[in-house]
Amino acid sequence: MQSVFIGMEEVRETLNISQAEAYRVIKRLNDELAEKGYLIVRGRTNRKYLEDRLYHVTLSTPLSAAK
Question: 23-57: per-residue pLDDT in tens?
Fold first, then answer.
């Protein structure tokens, strides 16, 4: 079972970006979540929120179901 949070290393590998850029992505997403009133964890972000912002569907959703 995957964690609710995704860390820098997984973000870096998923997006094929540098460590510094991965931290910037996490910070940006966490800033957005904080503005919406969510609690955040520095250095990690919500996995589902990342998927939604990147793909507009979750990675676990079959492609045939995504429209």
Answer: 999 999 999 999 999 999 999 999 999 999 988 75
- With beta carbons less than 8 A apart as the criterion, state whether 43 and 26 touch: yes
- CB-based burial, 31-43: b 16+ in 10 Å, e otherwise: eebeeeeeebeee
| DSSP assignment string, 26-49 | HHHHHHHHHHTT---BTTEEEHHH
The whole model's pTM is what? Answer: 0.79
What residues pair up with 46 in beta bridges, in sequence order?
A: 5
CA 31, 34, 42: angle at the middle one, nearest 5?
65
Bridge-based pairing of strands 44-46 and 5-7 is: antiparallel
